[in-house]
Amino acid sequence: MSEKPRAWRCTVCGYIHAQIEAPDCCPVCGADQADFEPYSPPAPTPPAPFRAQRWQCVICDYFHEGPEPPETCPLCGVNRDQFQPLPEVDPVGTDSGTPAQILIVGCGIAGVSAAETIRRVSPQSSITLVGTEGELPYYRLNLTRYLAGEIPREALPIHPAAWFEDQHIGLIRNVNVDRINAEAHSVTLSNGLELPYDRLILAAGSHAYIPSLEGVHLEGVFTLRTTVDADHLIHRAQAGTRCVCIGGGILGIEIAGALARQKVAVTLLESHAWLMPRQLNLRAAGVLERHLLSLGIQVVKKAQTRALIGETRVSGVALQDGPILPADVVVLATGVRPNTALARKAGLEVNNGVVVDNHLRTSLPDIFAAGDAAEHNGQVYGAWSASQYQGTIAALNAVGIPTAFGGLPRANTVKALGLDLTSIGKFQPEDGSYTVLEQEGTADYITFIFHDSRLAGAILIGHADLAATVKKAIESKTDFSALLQKNPAIPEILAALRPA
To answer: How much is the pLDDT for 14?
Structure first.
């Protein structure tokens, strides 16, 4: 005996009657039961595999997804001709995202990138973003540009509030996640609210590291991690103010450059023998230091801070073996630490960051991690571009599209200085098996680091036009063996990188 149809279609008006028996008459047009025919819904058309055209800014590494690059980079402001196309994200398999209830902890670029991706590949999924700040999610890397007066405060948000509403993305701000209830698949917020999830993406970011120094809690001592920090610093650091910036890494240098543009008298302290010791070699750091001096920034190297001086308000910085530097404002740019407390309390495996596999899964089921708090293959990237990319990868895996994160070469740029500086991959030889080529001018510098005849890293100062080509050569592991056998100089390498 044949199975009865589960739906009927009116042949007169097209009305679908989702019952086992046809109605006596059509409720829409009044047609008789005889005008109905058995109806089976057509099989859904399989969606095309997700493939996203991606573009990368060669100056600051910002990733943009879409058919065309943006008119200007929202991070560093360069024109669209400074964007290079990247290989499409091509996940394993052909299924589209499976609808799920996704909870994202963290409203930085990793969290926002995850939300954007989920909405694109899984339109029916429920998405909730939870963040500790009261602001709309914003470009954290642009805080130094805001400090320098290059961009207004309203240019900081990644998306306007209406975008989250239009995309049906729940945005909960100004609240902490107190606890992950892994077995119950829920989290408890600091306001007492409990939110369920099918999959959880931890994109909790990092916090400014505060060294154990006497006086760090005095009035006038700042870090730069949030818009609130930036607003307070702008209010205090007026023209003529004396500022000591502790830390000669990327952030410290950008803060020093931003404040110098605002006519603040800046002294920059670096405990190492040269600036940016994690990104530059000695010669490149010398070029950078000369540029900082031209901006009016005083640089003190091998500077070990003993204490910050003052009763209620900071008035100076005491060095271990040196004078007390007068200061109306002190900025601590002494690094960041991953936010891992929530993960540790939940029982996730944590080393320096939350340990993840190649699909950015943590040690607990249905929990992923991305961004500054994630540790992949022993590495915590702490970089905008890596966080943005990891957010995309975690999102794809969270909705059932298997996609591997294979790591990224380290790439760093400096903003707010009026100097094109990029450091990619290895910047120092590890042993005698490396080949190093250098070329230094008055205000520019190039070094290429080769290993096993392949380009392993580079430092470019004053050569922004080379960044895209060099990155591609490093990522594609281009073989330079034939050229290296001829003992080339920098011009020959440049000619090979720029074929006619």
So the answer is: 60
Residues 368-404 have pLDDT tens digits of 999 999 999 999 998 888 999 999 999 999 999 999 9
**Bridge partner residues of 434 (DSSP):** 451
Strand-pairing partners, residue 36, are 10
Which residues 6+ apart lie within 8 Å of 476 measured at CB?
none
Contact, 462 vs 444, CB < 8 A?
yes
Return phi, psi of residue 65, to 5°: -110, 135
DSSP at 133: S
The angle at the Cα of 346, spanning 341 to 348, to the nearest 5 degrees, equals 85
- CATH architecture type of domain 221-334: 3-Layer(bba) Sandwich (3.50)
CA distance 168 to 161: 11
What are all long-range contacts of 6-11, with beta carbons under 8 Å and residues at least 24 apart? 6/40, 7/38, 7/39, 7/40, 7/41, 8/36, 8/37, 8/38, 8/39, 9/36, 9/37, 9/38, 9/39, 10/35, 10/36, 11/35, 11/36, 11/37
* Backbone torsions φ then ψ of 373, nearest 5 degrees: -90, -5
CB proximity list for 485: less than 8 A, separation 6 or greater: none
**For the chain, how many residues are written?**
500
For 301-324, how does the pLDDT look when each residue is reduced to its tens digit (9 = 90+)? 999 999 999 999 999 999 998 789
Q: Which CATH number fits domain 420-497: 3.90.1150.10, 3.30.565.10, 3.40.50.9100, 3.30.390.30?
A: 3.30.390.30
Beta-carbon contacts of 412 under 8 Å, excluding residues fewer than 6 positions away, are 250, 279, 383, 422, 423, 424
Residue 269 makes CB contacts below 8 A (sequence gap 6+) with 244, 245, 246, 247, 248, 300, 303, 305, 317, 319
Q: Which residues contact 181 (CB under 8 A, 6 or more apart)?
A: 187, 188, 194
DSSP string, 57-68: ETTT--EEESSS
Is the domain defined by 53-207+337-398 classed in CATH 3.50.50.60? yes
| Reported confidence tier of residue 60, pLDDT bands at 50, 70, 90 | low
Are 278 and 457 in contact, with CB atoms under 8 Å apart?
Answer: no
Q: Which residues pair with 425 in a beta bridge?
A: 457
